[in-house]
Design brief:
Blueprint: E1 2-9, E2 15-17, H1 20-23, E3 30-34, E4 40-44, H2 45-56, H3 63-74, E5 77-79, E6 86-88, H4 91-96, E7 102-109, E8 111-116, H5 117-129, H6 131-140
């Protein structure tokens, strides 16, 4: 399970050090892809396989289904954690998420999200300002 917020740097070769506590969960392989809200999603291989199967099963006749599957599947890349605990983030994904040198790795249960540090702070601040409204809507969903 991934939880927490970690600040890291991307080196000149596009390598990102994965927080130590998450490396074991990614040892059997991982997949990085375009995420939502201009972030990247990093999944352990097993979790990615579950999601990819669901995406492949979406109705082809619906344009939103096709668009979302394309976003996630066509943007995906297998990555491995090297001996120093780093993964290489492909340039096209770094560009998609507008990643600068400073990034935040956020644990979200079954995946990690990788954010540009400035964008993360802006996003987090906006969410914190509406936390009451969000909680109310989640309450309506039974959460």
């Amino acid at each position: 399970m991934f939880i927490g917020e970690y600040h890291h740097s991307i080196d000149d070769k596009g390598r990102l050090a994965i927080p130590m506590k998450f490396r074991g969960d990614l040892a059997k392989g991982a997949v990085v892809t375009r995420g939502l809200d201009t972030s990247l999603f990093l999944f352990p291989k097993e979790e990615w396989d579950k999601l990819a199967e669901k995406l492949a099963g979406l109705p082809l006749g619906q344009s939103n289904s096709r668009a979302f599957a394309r976003l996630m599947l066509a943007g995906a890349m297998d990555v491995e954690v090297d001996k120093q605990g780093r993964v290489v983030l492909p340039e096209y994904l770094r560009e998609y998420a507008s990643l600068s040198k400073q990034v935040v790795v956020a644990g979200l249960y079954n995946r990690l999200e990788i954010w540009d540090a400035t964008k993360w702070q802006t996003y987090k601040t906006s969410i914190e300002q509406d936390v009451g409204g969000i909680a109310e809507k989640l309450g309506e969903l039974g959460v």
